[in-house]
Design a protein that fits this description.
This protein is mainly beta and 156 residues long. It has a single domain, classed as Jelly Rolls (Sandwich). Helix content is 3%, strand content 50%. It is built from one helix and twelve strands; from the N terminus they run E-E-E-E-E-E-E-H-E-E-E-E-E. The longest helix is centred in the middle third of the chain and has 4 residues. The radius of gyration is 16 Å and the shape is globular.
């Protein structure tokens, strides 16, 4: 599939748009894992506040409203700190079979926590290797919507 665009197999599912985030936690909306074989969370820092820290993890739930929310084991980054963390990125890979599927967990979100001081952060949560290709975002074709409505352009 050498002629396939990477955007045909990778879709933005949710984001934490770049923001000066005060100390506290911000999360993406819940995303169903049923349309993709794998996921990627991309966390990005800008300039961190004095002594700030950034933590990120993937959480799971049994429905889109977050019922039974709990962390996915092993799906958290090592803490990013001000001393070495300005303008850095971190990634977390996830496969649906890493969830507690025996107990009905099929929804995920990214949780990002800024500690100590306001910091510039952003994050993107992608679904990859879809069950149905090519992926179309909600603006391009609502009938085959596997991508976020916030994506306004895909240039091939």
């Amino acid at each position: 599939m050498i002629n396939r665009q990477i955007s045909e197999g990778l879709a933005l599912q949710a984001s934490i748009d770049p923001v000066s985030q005060a100390a506290g936690t911000i999360t993406t909306p819940w995303v169903s894992v049923y349309n993709f074989h794998n996921f990627l969370a991309l966390i990005s820092t800008g300039v961190l506040g004095a002594s700030a820290t950034v933590d990120a993890k993937i959480q799971q739930a049994t429905d889109i409203s977050g019922t039974g929310v709990k962390d996915v084991t092993g799906k958290a980054i090592a803490q990013i700190v001000k001393a070495s963390g300005d303008n850095k990125q971190a990634m977390i890979n996830l496969r649906p079979q890493e969830l507690d599927t025996n107990n009905g967990f099929g929804f995920v979100r990214l949780s990002l926590t800024v500690g100590v001081a306001a910091s510039l952060v952003g994050a993107y949560f992608f679904g990859g290797t879809p069950l149905f290709e090519p992926i179309k975002n909600a603006n391009a074709n609502p009938a085959i919507n596997l991508g976020a409505a916030s994506v306004v352009q895909i240039v091939a």
